[in-house]
């Protein structure tokens, strides 16, 4: 479904509940009104409790998937792909949460709603249509450079923010370059009928980049003409028009744009205009400037570093049984792709040490600040993406969690074990009062600190005897993992 982040007339009529701490999801997000719904998911407006920022939460009920391998793989792929993408014209996936029954996509909130709702009121002037098309091509070009092909570009999947800038959403039908078969082509039949490229209808395989260009051309036609270039009440007749490339431009379309359409909607993918050629076209170039890559962010400003305190529920959430990463990356292995360590260090100092590693790589790594006290590291050419977050456990202890979000597992392992981890651990680690192993997936923690957190947050009485204490902590972990409402 399209993530309908902005309010629509149907959404305003939908049931609502007030934003309040009582409605907080995982103690992190206050869930508000329903924004939209589809066959398998609903989208709600919500607010980040820590920052007050608005987000959209897409809720997928697992029972509605009916154990369908296709639907489950679509969800895995969507999360894996959206984890790779950070571009001003693409809706950001902030994080993924889950319970036994539901999966929650926490997404950037896009206030303005669908582009479709705006164009439905009337066609756009060429200058406005050009602005949106330039932003669309910028986003699609970025996706292709990361080996991602959207395959369902249409106005319903293009959102507008409060500044009327375009954001591409809904990557549920997207493909990665490693989905290409030995013939170098994709073969899955997908897309929306009116926007699908003729080579998909031919069922002989297709180039993901070329079909995205075709869909972009149809979108531009809709924006400037106010109607679809290929349309017929009979679906088979519409497919025939698409296959033959039968369309006519209205009289108000400029000559330059007509010529541009002839290249965008060329039925022969071999000679259809490419993204690079689009950027050189005279009609497109008018007022266009490339979106610059996000530069390394200075993370040393303490006012911008809001450290996330780790309470008992946060500790429990480190349980491998609650880790969704394996759901959306087939190559993911919790033991190799997630690591955590405790350090007697200030959170700011931890991030400064990570910056040292990035600078030493001389451009081989890109670093971006993410929510609260965390960063995201991206390898050269996007070959892997790593998230690193710092949580305050006590006044003197922090937990550093690093996770491979996407890409090359070997490159991730080398970066973490050989470069970042040793730098963070220049100072000796805290010697814990007691060591224990359980399904938290942590090497060790100061048992006293966990005991205090469990007693405070969950009202568990922990015995003084050390062996009984560890057993009680394990029982508490099991209870809370099975009864999340206990929080």
UniProtKB/TrEMBL annotation:
| All copies of domain Protein kinase, residue ranges | 29-284
Specify which residues bind ATP according to the UniProt entry for this protein: 58
Instruction: Keywords in alphabetical order, please.
Output: ATP-binding, Fatty acid biosynthesis, Fatty acid metabolism, Kinase, Lipid biosynthesis, Lipid metabolism, Manganese, Nucleotide-binding, Phosphopantetheine, Phosphoprotein, Serine/threonine-protein kinase, Transferase
**What SMART domains does the annotation carry?**
S_TKc
User: What cofactor is needed?
Assistant: Mn(2+)
Q: Which Pfam families match?
A: NAF, Pkinase, PP-binding
| Residues annotated as domain NAF | 305-329
- Reaction(s) this enzyme catalyzes, per UniProt: L-seryl-[protein] + ATP = O-phospho-L-seryl-[protein] + ADP + H(+); L-threonyl-[protein] + ATP = O-phospho-L-threonyl-[protein] + ADP + H(+)
Q: Which GO terms describe its molecular function?
A: ATP binding; protein serine/threonine kinase activity
Primary role = Carrier of the growing fatty acid chain in fatty acid biosynthesis.
Similarity field: Belongs to the protein kinase superfamily. CAMK Ser/Thr protein kinase family. SNF1 subfamily. Belongs to the acyl carrier protein (ACP) family.
Task: Write down what this protein is called.
Answer: Acyl carrier protein
Q: Which organism is it from?
A: Salvia splendens
């Amino acid at each position: 479904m399209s993530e309908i982040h902005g309010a629509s007339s149907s959404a305003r009529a939908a049931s609502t509940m007030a934003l309040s701490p009582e409605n907080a999801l995982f103690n992190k997000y206050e869930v508000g009104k329903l924004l939209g719904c589809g066959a398998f998911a609903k989208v709600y407006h919500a607010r980040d409790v820590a920052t007050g920022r608005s987000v959209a939460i897409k809720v997928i009920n697992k029972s509605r998937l009916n154990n369908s391998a296709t639907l489950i793989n679509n969800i895995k792929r969507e999360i894996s792909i959206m984890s790779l993408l950070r571009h001003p014209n693409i809706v950001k996936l902030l994080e993924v949460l889950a319970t036994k029954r539901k999966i929650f996509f926490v997404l950037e909130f896009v206030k303005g709603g669908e582009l479709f709702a705006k164009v439905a009121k009337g066609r756009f002037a060429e200058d406005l249509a050009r602005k949106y098309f330039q932003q669309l091509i910028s986003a699609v070009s970025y996706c292709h450079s990361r080996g991602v092909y959207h395959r369902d570009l249409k106005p319903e999947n293009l959102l507008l923010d409060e500044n009327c800038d375009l954001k591409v959403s809904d990557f549920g039908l997207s493909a990665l370059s490693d989905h290409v078969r030995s013939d170098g082509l994709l073969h899955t039949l997908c897309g929306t009928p009116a926007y699908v490229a003729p080579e998909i209808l031919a069922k002989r395989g297709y180039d993901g980049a070329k079909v995205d260009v075709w869909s972009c051309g149809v979108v531009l036609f809709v924006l400037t003409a106010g109607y679809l270039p290929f349309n017929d009440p009979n679906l088979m007749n519409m497919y025939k028009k698409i296959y033959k490339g039968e369309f006519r431009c209205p009289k108000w379309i400029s000559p330059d744009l007509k010529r541009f359409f002839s290249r965008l909607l060329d039925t022969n993918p071999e000679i259809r205009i490419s993204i690079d050629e689009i950027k050189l076209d005279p009609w497109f170039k008018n007022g266009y400037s490339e979106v610059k890559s996000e530069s390394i962010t200075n993370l040393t400003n303490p006012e911008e570093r809001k450290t996330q305190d780790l309470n008992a529920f946060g500790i429990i959430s480190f349980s491998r049984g609650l880790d969704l990463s394996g759901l959306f990356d087939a190559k993911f292995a919790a033991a190799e792709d997630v690591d955590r360590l405790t350090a007697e260090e200030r959170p700011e100092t931890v991030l400064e040490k990570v910056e040292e590693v990035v600078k030493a790589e001389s451009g081989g790594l890109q670093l971006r600040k993410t929510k609260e006290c965390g960063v995201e590291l991206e390898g050269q050419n996007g070959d892997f993406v790593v998230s690193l977050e710092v949580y305050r456990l006590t006044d003197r202890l922090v937990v550093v969690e690093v996770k491979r979000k996407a890409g090359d597992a070997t490159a991730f392992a080398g970066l973490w074990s050989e470069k970042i981890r040793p730098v963070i651990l220049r100072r000796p680690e805290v010697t814990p009062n007691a060591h224990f192993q359980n399904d938290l997936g942590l090497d060790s923690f100061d048992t006293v600190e966990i005991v205090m957190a469990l007693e405070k947050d969950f009202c568990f009485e922990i015995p003084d005897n050390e062996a009984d204490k560890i057993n009680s902590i394990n029982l508490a972990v099991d209870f809370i993992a099975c009864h999340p409402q206990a929080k």
